[in-house]
Amino acid sequence: MERIPLPPMKRPLIAILRGLKPEEAEGVVGALIETGFEAIEIPLNSPDPFRSIETAVKMAPAGCLIGAGTVLTTAQVDLLADAGGRLMVSPNVEPAVIRLAAAKGMVTMPGVFTPTEALAAAAAGASGLKFFPASVLGPSGIAAIRAVLPGDVEIAAVGGVSEVNFADYAAIGIRSFGLGSSLYRPGMSAADVRQRAIATLAAYDAVYGGQQ
Known about the structure:
- The protein is of the alpha/beta class.
- The chain has a single domain (about 15-205), classed as Alpha-Beta Barrel (TIM Barrel).
- It has helices spanning about 20-35, 50-60, 75-80, 95-105, 115-125, 135-145, 165-170, 190-210; strands spanning about 15, 40-45, 65-70, 85-90, 105-110, 130, 155-160, 175-180.
- Helix 1 runs parallel beside helix 2 and helix 3 packs parallel to helix 4 (about 95-105).
- It is globular and about 45 Å long.
């Protein structure tokens, strides 16, 4: 199956909204989109996640990538497609899940930690690889594994990543990140999220110059 690439984004950053409630979705997602985030992930272990995803999809401008994290089964991929999601993020490598999501036109970002997992995900046609937890592997660990991977697979660092360590990853050529608790924690207001988003994007642009 042909690999579905990530769409062009000014900043390849995925906002991870674990724990988001449906009644909070409009305000929080709106704050992120307005500040410049172009990819939003709502993990499926959040309350009533597909309702939140449907809300986000309806709000998002064309080109904005909305989807789910913690996707574990093909049944969940079907529900994600029904909700209009175009991004499938998983914590593991399950080829059937990756292939079905790709067949439905989704960008796929399975979680990997080892060369074996990374190569298996790439072989299944993943759009990109979510190295998690990046704080354990570190930039040097990711760089070592990347040396054996296909060049057309996007590499993202997720887990323990925030605006304070963008430069560490920039040094090895990593530009894509998933950002969770540094942006959003359950109970935060949309105003709080907006403030964190503005600071995060400013820090990213200071390191990368705002260019993909």
